[in-house]
Amino acid sequence: MFRMLSRLLAAPILFLALSGCTDGNSDGITVSDSTVIIDVRTAEEFATGHLDGARLLDLTSGEFAATLPELAPDVEYLVYCRSGNRSAQAVTLMEDAGFSDVTNLGSVEQASSATGIPIVT
To answer: What average pLDDT does range 77-95 have in this prediction?
Structure first.
């Protein structure tokens, strides 16, 4: 009885698992030519792998804060780091400074998954 029940449940579960698969851009974040992608990790972290085309602005070194006044506040920004903590801090700083279109993508892996942009070294 248990074996038959397991088989009956396996097909719908497999279908649901497979139907959730997409082309790698699971969160559906569209990146346009004007979107600025910011990596707020250290240079050492950036060198181990970053999103293709990302701009490095290290949050902990003060580079991010120093560059913030030079950034256009009406451009779309996508921000990521190692775990999502520093990117959340950076997004808060940007929003407090009047930036209107800023998204925290979390970790570099989450950012790649959300945007479909590959991680390069």
So the answer is: 98
